[in-house]
Predict the structure.
Amino acid sequence: MIGEYNHIIDPKKRIAIPSRLRKEVGEKAILTRGLDQCLSLFPLSEWEKYTSQLTKLPMGKGDARTLNRMILGGAVEVELDSLGRILIPDYLRQFAGLKQRAVIAGLYNRLEIWDEERWNAYKIEAEKNQDMIAEKLSELGLY
């Protein structure tokens, strides 16, 4: 699941998953709070992998508890309708600041759903810093 797709959130608070990604997402998926004030949409198989890592975090650490509460406590199972749309609950829409225009970004194992304005601002900032980010990743042997 890769790519960047512009979509509209309809008056009934639904967004269509891009047709080329629907097979990978499946009929049911998990929608939750993501990092950087976006939403994350996980296929069920990827959700299982992700949550198995989250539940290994030490519950004695406040940051681990907070992350688990935000991600797991905010999660909801969504079902794609016949047109490939999912319903975004109000609390998740408010968290991500979603208005009418949104961007769906494919990140291999999950999709992120961003408010279009927020995505554009994030992307501009990331593009400005891409050389610095590449340097840091090279130190880890990732670039």
Summary: The helical segments are 22-25, 44-54, 62-73, 90-96, 116-128, 130-139. The mean pLDDT is 94. The longest strand covers residues 2-8.
